[in-house]
Amino acid sequence: MPELSRRRALTAAAALTAAAGAQPALAPSARAAHGSPAGFDEVYKGRRIQGRPAAGGHHHHGSGYAVFVDGVELHVMRNADGSWISVVSHYDPVPTPRAAARAAVDELQGAPLLPFPAN
């Protein structure tokens, strides 16, 4: 394995500094594109659906948004394109967490939502 020379160390430090300097310029637009939607609380087809921003992200996907159907958490995830999916309607992306909750109620057809086991 080659020795770490002073030149390589300085080159790596310069590259890291440049990358760190570029990050703040990119962060505001990324936040705007992936900002957390407003909360909601409504009755849809006789089921109470709720959604709100969640502190600290959600499980390992980090969507930062919690959705509930009749008080039971509906696991939702935000896709890279900004669409949302849930464990109930995983292959049908929708534009908002509210739409994901409504799609889950439609799919459940009156059946209760069972809690999703955490890893």
Summary tags:
four-stranded antiparallel beta sheet, alpha+beta, 119 residues, two-stranded antiparallel ribbon, signal, TAT_signal, MelC1, 34% helix, 2 helices
Please provide a written account of the structure.
It is a single chain. By secondary structure, the chain is of the alpha+beta class. The chain has two domains: 1-33; 40-108, 2-Layer Sandwich (protein ne1242 fold). The protein is 34% helix and 22% strand. It is built from two helices and six strands; from the N terminus they run H-E-E-E-E-E-E-H. The protein has helices at residues 6-33, 97-108, and strands spanning 40-44, 47-53, 65-69, 72-74, 76-78, 84-86. The chain has a four-stranded antiparallel sheet with strand order 1-2-3-4, with helices on one face. Strand 5 and strand 6 (84-86) form a beta hairpin. It is elongated, with a radius of gyration of 21 Å. The two termini are 39 Å apart. Mean pLDDT is 79; it is low at 22-33.
Mean pLDDT: 79
Distance between the termini: 39 Å
Give the number of domains: 2
Strand content: 15-25%
Signal peptide: 1-27
Pfam family, one: MelC1
Region (Disordered): 43-62
Keywords: Copper, Signal
